[in-house]
Amino acid sequence: MKGLGDLMGQFQALQDNAKKIQEELANAEVQGESGAGLVKVVMTGRHDVRSVSIDSSLMSEEKEILEDLLAAAVNDAVRRVEANNQEKLGGLTEGFQMPPGFKMPF
Questions:
Q1: Beta carbons within 8 Å of 99's beta carbon, 6+ residues apart
Q2: 79 closest CA partner among 105, 71, 64
Q3: Residues 86, 92: Cα–Cα separation, whole Å
Q4: Taking the mean position of all CA atoms in its chain, how far away is CA 46?
Q5: C-alpha to C-alpha distance for 89 and 12, rounded to whole angstroms
Q6: Host H or E run for residue 86
Q7: From the centroid of its chain, how far is CA 65?
Q8: What is the pLDDT of residues 77-98, one digit of tens each?
Q9: pLDDT band at 15 (very low <50, low <70, confident <90, very high)
Q10: What values do phi and psi take at 24, rounded to 5?
Q11: Which of 51, 50, 52, 54 is nearest to 38 (CA)?
Q12: Hey, how many other C-beta atoms are within 10 angstroms of the C-beta on 46?
């Protein structure tokens, strides 16, 4: 049963590491942009918008254009959060070794 004990230890370490990474990701900030950087949105890993920056040159534009640029910047930030999450979580199970012949129940 030594193999099972090793597996349980690896699993506990994996859980601890996953929790740490999830906390880091939740607090990480990314910046989304649109209009060649004229509109910027800073968002956390929890998808909370921390700040919005709109270049003053856009203040003379029509309302619909501003709304579209803001939506595009938010969407860009969301995509960047998701990409950051996948990048960080992708390597989480690296090095997790199953004992030879061990089959998962599913």
A1: 3, 4, 6, 7
A2: 71
A3: 10
A4: 8
A5: 16
A6: helix 63-90
A7: 28
A8: 999 999 999 888 877 666 556 5
A9: confident
A10: -60, -45
A11: 54
A12: 10
Q: What is the largest CA-CA distance in the chain?
A: 72
Quick check: helix, strand or coil at residue 8?
Answer: helix
| Amino acid type, 14 | L
Task: Return all residues near 47 (Cβ < 8 A) that are at least 6 apart.
Answer: 78, 81
The answer to whether residues 77 and 42 touch, using CB atoms and an 8 Å cutoff, is yes
Structure-token pair, residue 104: 């998962």
pTM of the model: 0.74
Q: Following DSSP, what letter does each residue of 12-37 receive, concatenated?
A: HHHHHHHHHHHHHHHH-EEEEEETTT
DSSP letters, 20-84, are: HHHHHHHH-EEEEEETTTTEEEEEETT--EEEEEE-GGGGGS-HHHHHHHHHHHHHHHHHHHHHH
